[in-house]
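Design request, tokens follow.
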């Protein structure tokens, strides 16, 4: 018989990253690296779907936010009518790490928008970037693909 005074603590659910989605992301990154261009740039969905690795982005934030909070916030921003897209730059693939589910690392994203830099910084404040500044993206995002009034801003986390 169980004592009414004792309630077992619920077990914390430990989520792991999705291996098949990680492989898909790695394939996209490798395709860009083969062309020997600048750092790979991927979509929000490619970077965040299946990503449960808290070390993949914003890992120095205290308290930690986690990739899925980043994803929800950035998807909401991407859905704004004044945002053309949001892209994630891959800084390190972590390919040589023995943990096969370790997600690639990013320390910056690019927001393609017609809004001002000050407005973009306000939108991103809950994610606590170290900097939000005007930027240029490498050749993977051709300027001909940008809408006429769109500027590019880079958000960076140390």
């Amino acid at each position: 018989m169980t004592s009414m005074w004792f309630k077992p603590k619920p077990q914390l659910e430990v989520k792991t990253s999705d291996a098949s989605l990680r492989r898909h992301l790695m394939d996209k990154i490798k395709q860009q690296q083969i062309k020997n261009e600048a750092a790979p740039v991927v979509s929000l969905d490619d970077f965040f779907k299946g990503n449960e690795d808290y070390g993949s982005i914003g890992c120095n934030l205290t308290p930690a936010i986690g990739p899925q909070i980043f994803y929800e916030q950035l998807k909401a921003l991407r859905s704004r009518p004044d945002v053309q897209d949001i892209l994630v730059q891959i800084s390190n693939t972590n390919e040589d790490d023995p943990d096969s589910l370790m997600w690639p690392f990013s320390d910056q994203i690019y927001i393609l928008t017609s809004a001002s830099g000050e407005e973009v910084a306000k939108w991103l404040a809950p994610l606590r970037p170290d900097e939000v500044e005007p930027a240029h993206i490498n050749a993977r995002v051709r300027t001909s693909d940008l809408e006429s009034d769109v500027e590019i801003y880079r958000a960076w986390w140390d």
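Comment from the thread starter after seeing the answer: thanks! The radius of gyration is 18 Å.
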